[in-house]
Design a protein that fits this description.
Layout (H helix, E strand, L loop, with lengths): L9 H13 L5 E9 L5 E11 L3 H11 L4 E5 L16 E9 L5 H6 L6 E4 L5 E12 H15 L12 E2 L4 E2 L10 E2 L1 E5 L8 H5 L28 H9 L8 E2 L13 E3 L7 E3 L5 E2 L1 H8 L10 H14 L9
Antiparallel strand pairs: 1-2, 1-3, 3-7, 4-6, 5-6, 5-10, 8-9, 11-12, 12-13, 13-14
Helix pairs in contact: 1-2, 7-8
Amino acid sequence: MTTPHRPQPLAVQAGLLSDLLHHGRPGLVEVVAATRSPDDELEDFRRGRFVRAGRRAAFLRVLASLRGERVELFFTPATFVRPVAGNGAVSGLAVAWVDIDDPARLDDMARFRHHPHAVVASGSGGAHAYWLLAEEVSASCGESLNRRLAAALGGDPVSANRGRILRVPGSSNHKGTGAGRAPRLCRLTAYEPSLPRHVPAELGAGLADPHARRAVRAATTADPARPWRELEAVDYYRSLTGIAPRRDGTIRCPSLLHEDRHPSAHLFTGPGRGWFCFSCGAGGGAIDMVAALRGWPTGSALRGERFLACLEELGRRLGPAVSPHE
């Protein structure tokens, strides 16, 4: 990975990351400033300053206007559909990120099989890493991907939200700078714009989301009347579609409503763990896969007559004669 040999000024580093994350993206980017108090707390957050995504000069002008004594600068990796701070105005993500506070976990990121496009040292020993995505995913799927990366790499799960603000490279971190200590620089330590963009399902393959709410209707004990509960996702996917999945469990989304240009869904290993599409958010268990193949909703939205119809079809196609290892 390319590592800058010397720290560059704010305009250079912030401009590089802005170009990487926001060039060609629609919408707005929020720029935020906060002041480090004598008690070492961030206060006086100045929010609500938005610039058009990809407008480097405007982005840098706002950053320059906010600089001041003990001021720390932040921005949003995501773009907003309207100028409202928070999560509500983010509809999709074209980048995934992780915020690692523990310096001891940085080696995990260095060994991770999917190299990030950029890494920013936060100035307090940790780092932020960014992965550009091959296609935009829904905001909820993007948050799930961020949580998976955080769980695997020792990142902060709180920083996975779609409207998250993160430190601007080239700015100063004043944390712990009392008693005459100099502020530390946030800086780009890796910058690889030429790397291919990551397919979301491949980036998240094999990574568990600790807060996933997939409605996987699976029993923990054997149920002779519903043997598909004991099947792994790869088994019922093969039986229901007639398609052999890739060895890593990555598949094109089975939903009839999702024209999946890249394989965006993943079959998780282990009975009852189910499947999930990182692009459209469809997922669940065997019943949900039947629903997806019919163009119906999955998870908690699958109910009533549609749920019963899927249950009946599973009984016909994966009845008691099917064993977990067939």
